[in-house]
Amino acid sequence: MAHLFEPLKIRDVVLSNRIGIPPMCQYSAHDGMAMEWHFVHYGCRAVGGAALMIIEATAVVPEGRISPGDLGIWNDEQIEPLARIERFARQQGCVAAVQLAHAGRKASVGLGWEAQRALDQRDGGWEVVAPSPLPFGEGYAVPRELDEAGIGRVLAKFGAGARRAREAGFQAVEIHGAHGYLLHQFLSPLSNQRTDAYGGSFENRTRLLREVVTAVRAEWPERLPLLVRISATDWMDGGWNADETVELSRKLKALGVDLVDVSSAGLVPNAKIPAGPGFQTEFAARVRREAGIATAAVGLITSPTQADHIVRTGQADMVLLGREILRNPYWPLGAAQALGHAAPWPQQYLRAAPAGSTGR
Predict the structure, then answer these.
(1) Are 103 and 233 contacting, i.e. CB atoms less than 8 angstroms apart?
(2) Pairing status of strand 95-101 against strand 52-59
(3) Quick one: which of 233, 229, 215, 208 has its CA closest to 129?
(4) pLDDT at 97
(5) pLDDT tens, residue by residue, 204-218
(6) How far apart are CA 185 and CA 132, in angstroms?
(7) Would strands 294-298 and 13-15 be described as parallel, antiparallel, or unpaired?
């Protein structure tokens, strides 16, 4: 079986190990533009030894931002600041991906460390959209229901975002279909009460995500990986569930998706989530086994032995570490030492590396 420091080839891209950094919003952009904080934050983590780094939710339209501080990829001026991050990551042997996103009804709220409520226009807020006019929760705006013309614009903007990601030099792209944002809102019966071709049946509720995948794959080079992040369950009766996640993953594979990044929840504020070490790994294992597609496991994965066990036992093809990488950007280098594997260190840091380490 593979282990945590074995390479992973996806299309023409080779990841040097099975450790990735999931998208984590920094809420520090100006008009969607990546700033110095982003360059230092992502640069530091690219140096730390992870093979894959997924840049935070990057909105394909201004109204698709979660907050005014979100990154964007809706105009060409936003390409170069993102490209700077990608170039540095590539120099460190880290594959950078960008996550294409639209927040839907969870848009136009405060920065992540501020009160999560809908912003009005005086606070820099904007109108939000969704599959149905149902707010996310108390303090959130009632969204405008997207009509078919609006859905068509969303599709076009995801495709345009993929084109800009390509021009920025990214080696992979991820579509955000999780955590209660727009594409997830279409998937779940709890947020999608439409009666047209985009609501009701499983086929209809998954239609928009499948069409987004097709639009992105049309702009994305055949040789480069396409990832999709999915919430495997809403953790709510009557919501999106693991059986549907498996079936959707089969369909996504046929459309050219290479890896499913398996998370959970985010659709409703009152879900009871049994969080604990590796609590979502079982969903990644099931998708991998039953849908026959590569998966990434995420969720309270913190120790090298835990991460290695997930890969060695075939539960997932790779692991994504979020909070642990925020606490320690160099976790992969320490994990290699703990597990007895050689990992190349930045030449500038070799004086602190274990004996026998090589530079990159």
Answers:
(1) no
(2) parallel
(3) 208
(4) 98
(5) 999 999 999 999 999
(6) 9
(7) unpaired
Alpha-carbon separation of residue 138 from 83, 115, 117, 119 (angstroms): 38, 12, 8, 13
Cα Rg, the chain, nearest whole Å:
19
Q: Which residues are catalytic?
A: 181
The confidence score (pLDDT) of residue 340 equals 94
Closest CA to 181 of 240, 257, 260, 266: 266
CA distance 240 to 354: 47
Tokens representing 134 are 């149902």
SS (H, E, C) the chain: CCCCCCCEEECCEEECCCEEECCCCCCCCECCECCHHHHHHHHHHHHCCCCEEEEEEEECCHHHCCCCCCEECCCHHHHHHHHHHHHHHHHCCCEEEEEEECCHHHCCECCCCCCCCECCHHHCCCCCEECCCCCCCCCCCCCEECCHHHHHHHHHHHHHHHHHHHHCCCCEEEEEECCCCHHHHHHCCCCCCCCCCCCCCHHHHCHHHHHHHHHHHHHCCCCCCEEEEEECCCCCCCCCCHHHHHHHHHHHHHCCCCEEEEECCCCCCCCCCCCCCCCCHHHHHHHHHHHCCEEEEECCCCCHHHHHHHHHCCCCCEEECCHHHHHCCCHHHHHHHHHCCCCCECHHHHHHCCCCCCEC
Specify whether the backbone of 278 is left (phi greater than 0), alpha (psi in -120 to 50) or beta: left
**In this structure, is the dihedral angle defined by the CA atoms of residues 290, 296, 300 and 305, taken in order, positive or negative?**
positive
Q: What is the pTM of this model?
A: 0.97
Q: What digits encode the pLDDT tens for the residues 248-273? A: 999 999 999 999 999 999 999 999 99
What mean pLDDT comes out for the span 210-231? 98
- What is the Cα–Cα distance from 186 to 36, expressed in whole angstroms? 35
Q: Is the predicted pLDDT of residue 120 greater than 80, yes or no? A: yes
Contact 206, 248 (CB under 8 A): yes
Burial class (CB in 10 A: 0-12, 13-18, 19+), 259: buried
Q: Write down the pLDDT at residue 115.
A: 86
CB atoms under 10 Å from CB of 127, counted, come to 11
